[in-house]
C-alpha cells in the first residue's frame, strides 16, 4: 500500500462519514504524516426566504467558519484523531483552492468504493472513495437479538 503523507478527508458530520474519517486516520499513522478533516459548507440551502438577510454572504461565511471548525474538532476528538487540520470551504471554486492550498497526497470521501485521481489547476492527487454500511435502529436491534441465542419458535424448553 502506498504511504500517504498528507491525507484530506471530506465529511458531512453524519455517522458514516465519521467512520470513514476514523478509517482514513489509520493512513496517517506513518511518521510525519498530516491529517486534515474538511467540510464544504452548503449554507445557502437553508437561507431561502423572502426577507432581506441582515448579513452579507461574506459575513455569513465569516461567522460560519469558526463554528464549522469547532464541529470538525469535535468529530476529531470523537474518533481519536490528534493533531488534525480543520479545513472549511464553501461550494464552487473555493473547494479546488482548498485542495490546491493544502496539497494532499490523497483525498478520502464517501461514495461508491474505488480509487481515482483528482486534478485541480496546479495540483493532483489520489482519491479513495469508500462506503461504510449503516443500519437502521430496527436492524441494529435485530442483530443484537440474533446474538442473544433466543430459542427458536416452536422449541419446547424443559423446566
- SS strand fraction: 15-25%
The biggest beta sheet is recorded as:
6 strands, mixed
Class from helix and strand fractions: alpha/beta
State the helicity in percent bands: 25-40%
Tell me the count of domains: 1
- State the end-to-end distance: 57 Å
Separate helix tally: 4
Shape: globular
CATH fold name: Rossmann fold
Mean pLDDT: 82
* Total beta strands: 6
Q: Return Rg in Å.
A: 21 Å
Entry summary:
The chain is an alpha/beta fold and 159 residues long. The chain has helices at 15-25, 57-79, 93-102, 137-147, and strands at residues 6-10, 34-40, 85-89, 106-110, 114-120, 123-130. It contains four helices and six strands.
Describe this structure in words.
The protein is an alpha/beta fold and 159 residues long. The chain has one domain: 3-Layer(aba) Sandwich (Rossmann fold). The protein is 35% helix and 23% strand. It has four helices and six strands. A six-stranded mixed β-sheet has the order 3-2-1-4-6-5, sandwiched between helices. Helix 1 links the parallel strand 1 and strand 2. It is globular, with a radius of gyration of 21 Å.
